Amino acid sequence: MRDAEVYPGADVDSDHNPVVATVAMKLRKRLRAKYRVKWNLGKLKDKDSYCSLEFRTGVDLALEKLIEHRSADNPEIKWTDFKETHR
After folding, report:
1. Would residue 20 count as lying in a domain?
2. pTM of this structure
């Protein structure tokens, strides 16, 4: 704060005295992200690559597990699924 003045005689229809101040601030430089990881999606598009096969296998297993879990008739499992989706 560099300077502050009080104006006690101002006609603002209040018991308070208005204050005017001059303030100086030092702004910090914004930090930028250093490096963003770029995924090589070309490996997934190639049907015979190791990465593509591993990815598809993982997705298939996760979907099978999800389907088995959703098809259960246990009401407690259905209730926990409902709570997790409606958070």
Report:
1. no
2. 0.40
